[in-house]
Design a protein that fits this description.
470 residues; alpha/beta; Oxidized Rhodanese, domain 1; 3 domains; six-stranded mixed sheet
């Protein structure tokens, strides 16, 4: 028997491949399913089951494509109501994969259908547990994502269910059990996840705040909900795609991977309901880009930022892509349900320029220049998360986290120039592109962000201070 974690850093998601004696199971697969098929073929195994821990909100699962291509049966936990053929497991129902037994443990809380899968070897020994979004390393799943699907369902009710699930189904299990969660640090499905992606259950009982044995349900609910920000706008749309079904990724790639000449590209872009999405490196975008295009670089947390900022998965997109990364970009967009790519600019920005079309730039300075130009009257906007800002920031800076820019657009100064930075230079260029697309051009981007500011040769201590000293 072997179990392998297949971790995708861009969306901080873990799928699992289990194989035993010529049979295999996949847990929470990504939308691009070929890697799972290749693994099974290499092992000479037949994919028997595709287990889903719940209806995912942060990505579109590959269950339908994988079932069609492998013949495996899709399995959900109790109360799940998918609009396609699937096995709806009963609580404690067991499934065999080769010499292994997989027991479904219904653990509502993150969602009503959330289910963990207990892994047992041929001797009945419990080896591990695939916990989905019920239990993470250092955290548990947020209880506010399923409210819209059921009348009178509140995050407080879901938190109460999650408390009971953890105490009654998970914590009584053996300490040496290996915990295999669906997400790690960076996922919006929790707020305090570790960068580690597996652990023993015993260590989680000792270190995870949500598993304290003396914790009351009221204390659990309060701590779980404290500081929980609004979920990204694309989450409910991904849930519905996972419930209702979606087009095959093969079809999405075929219809989206269309190279367009600059003139074709320009004609479609002028239709008015299309966003030009530029996924090159931020340094390239700063130097030259198509006016009103939005930058979200593929080298960063690409897909979640697309979902959080563009919001509508039905949004039509035109792409500016580094050469050779066309299919990768389309695939990564499809992971979060953005399936309406109309094509990409053949030849990139140079082809655009060669036709004489206008380009734009972003005013950008080095951290050293920023330190020299900063005065008591300067306006500084910090695009980092509140926790980053509170730990340390430029004196008198204004915190407008990137993921809130759509709500806080009116807070951005429209008159005098202002400095804009993040931690390393990626998020500030995203924000600058959004602002410029809406007519705000009085932006001076600070390269390398706060990390660069702290390393300047100029004495920055007069500008940089821990929030505790403010």
């Amino acid at each position: 028997m072997k179990i392998e974690q297949l971790y995708t850093g861009c969306i901080a998601q873990a799928a699992y491949y289990l194989e035993s004696n010529g049979e295999a199971a996949i847990f929470d697969p990504l939308r691009e399913v070929q890697p799972y098929l290749d693994k099974a073929q290499k092992d000479g195994a037949q994919i028997k089951y595709i287990f889903e821990t719940h209806f995912h909100a942060d990505f579109v699962s590959g269950h339908l494509d994988l079932a069609q291509k492998s013949g495996g049966k899709i399995v959900y936990g109790p109360t799940a109501k998918p609009e396609f053929e699937a096995i709806i497991a009963e609580d404690n129902q067991e499934f065999t994969v080769g010499n292994y037994t997989i027991k479904a443990l219904h653990t509502p809380g993150h969602t009503l259908e959330s289910t963990c899968y207990l892994l047992m070897d041929e001797n009945g020994k419990q080896h591990g547990i695939i916990t989905g979004d019920t239990l993470f390393i250092g955290d548990v799943g947020r209880p506010d994502l399923a409210q819209a699907l059921v009348d009178d369902l509140t995050q407080e009710k879901l938190a109460s269910y999650l408390f009971d699930s953890l105490r009654n189904k998970i914590m009584p299990l053996a300490d040496d059990l290996i915990v295999y969660p669906s997400h790690g640090a960076g996922s919006a499905c929790g707020k305090n996840m570790s960068k580690e992606t597996t652990d023993t259950l015993g260590n989680q009982k000792r270190t995870n705040y949500a598993l304290r044995p003396d914790m009351t349900k009221e204390e659990f609910t309060k701590e779980l909900l404290d500081g929980l920000g609004a979920p990204p706008a694309y989450f409910p749309q991904n849930v519905m795609m996972n419930i209702q079904g979606y087009d095959s990724l093969d079809n999405i790639i075929e219809k989206s991977k269309v190279g367009l000449s600059a003139r074709e590209f320009e004609a479609i872009a002028n239709q008015g309901d299309v966003i030009v999405l530029d996924v090159r490196h931020e340094n390239d975008f700063v130097k030259s880009h198509i006016p009103n295009s939005i930058f979200i670089g593929i080298q960063g947390g690409f897909a979640p930022w697309v979902g959080s900022l563009l919001r509508d998965v039905k949004q039509k997109l035109l792409l500016v892509i580094p050469e050779g990364r066309e299919e990768e970009t389309i695939t990564r967009l499809s992971r979060v349900g953005f399936d309406h790519v109309l094509g990409y600019l053949n030849g990139g920005i140079e082809a655009w320029k060669s036709e004489g079309f206008e380009t734009d730039t972003i005013a950008s300075i080095t951290p050293e220049m920023f330190a020299k130009q900063l005065t008591a009257d300067s306006i500084v906007i910090d695009a980092r998360k509140p926790g980053e800002f509170e730990a340390e920031h430029v004196t008198d800076a204004v915190n407008i986290p990137l993921d809130t820019i759509n709500e806080n657009f009116q807070s951005v100064p429209k008159g005098n120039d202002f400095f804009l930075h993040c931690a390393g230079g990626y998020r500030s260029v995203i924000m600058a592109s959004i602002l410029k697309s809406r007519g705000i051009h009085n932006i001076i981007n600070v390269e390398k962000g706060f990390n660069g500011i702290k390393q300047t040769s100029v004495n920055c201590t007069q500008f940089v201070c821990p929030s505790s000293k403010k």
